[in-house]
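Technical note accompanying the year-one report. For the benefit of new consortium partners, we illustrate the data format agreed upon in the data management plan: each record pairs a sequence with a structure-token string. No post-processing was applied to the example shown here.
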Amino acid sequence: MNIFSFAKTILFRLDTDEALGRAAELSYFFILSLFPFLIFLLTLIAYLPISQADVLNVIRQYAPGDTMRIIEVNLGQIMNEQRGGLLSFGLIGAIWAASNGINAIVRSFNRAYDVDEGRPFLIARGMAVLLTFAMVFIIIVALLLPVFGKEIGLFIFSHFGLSQEFLTFWEATRLVVSAIILFFVFIALYFVAPNVKLQLRHVLVGALFTTIGWMAVSYLFGYYVSNFGNYSAMYGGLGGIIVLLIWFYISGLLIIIGGEINALLLKIHHERIIRKS
């Protein structure tokens, strides 16, 4: 199967598996889980050598301008009004909302692989909770590495008397580190979520596609919104919310496409084995 036939098949599968509707479902759950997740994360990092600004700076790399303003304003209000018991509130809210989002992703992946969800409810929900904590851990690592990476770069720069070009290169590699961590997040998601026994090599292509696609689309969409898109003129005060929904919708669609790519590649692999036998 050449690349054009592969792309045509993916489009056909996206249509038959109702990918557009499932992406809308994912964007709804992403909205519900966003602030509880951030509240929990920001409360947790109070015990770590990183600040709220570090978290928001990482989000700012991908989020469109209007979306970022909504996140900052609302998150600041919530953090100021509910300083007591934020950790428990954020934990419960994030686990429940994110587990619903993970379940929506699981259903999309199972649809791509043409399998039913045969795992017991507690196991499926427990998997969603574990994935939530895994994502929190990975995000924290993604935040810590740039912070300490900058300090390490400055130490090497000053100790060995290297040129300014080295420091510039070192700063640029921090973006590469973020992309690599994001790549591993998608690998874990595509490997664990579907009710199919997979090997890591079966999910690498979809994870790579989603990583590159999500970073590129987030940048291009943010550029479009900042320079051309005037959603406030059409939606008024809801313009920022619409931008956030569209960004989540595109993100959900990319995740689904990555799952469809993995499922199709696995199907092609099995067909080749059958033909050889």
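Partners are asked to follow this layout when depositing records. The chain is about 85% helix and 0% strand.
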